[in-house]
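Backbone-to-sequence.
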């Protein structure tokens, strides 16, 4: 019974893509998309520490909490795209 389960589990294993340039480009574009969406979607900005980088010429502050939130969303989005493309055979 245990060997049958292990054989079935191995047969249904998900194969993911190894890291290559395509995976990196997809992750970069997913993060850029998340930064753009987060810049316009986050309403209460500037509550935490500021970034030591020049800001865009607007009244909206994009600080460390906003950067961490959008980067996290971008990595989740990128991982989903990469897994979806690799399971469909396109990556």
């Amino acid at each position: 019974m245990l060997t049958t389960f292990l054989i079935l589990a191995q047969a249904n294993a998900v194969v993911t893509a190894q890291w290559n340039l395509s995976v990196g480009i997809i992750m970069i574009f997913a993060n850029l998309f998340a930064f753009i969406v987060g810049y316009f979607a986050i309403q209460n900005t500037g509550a935490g520490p500021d970034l030591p980088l020049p800001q865009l010429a607007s009244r909206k502050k994009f600080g460390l909490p906003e950067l961490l939130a959008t980067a996290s969303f971008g990595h989740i989005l990128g991982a989903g795209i990469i897994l979806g493309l690799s399971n469909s055979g396109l990556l």
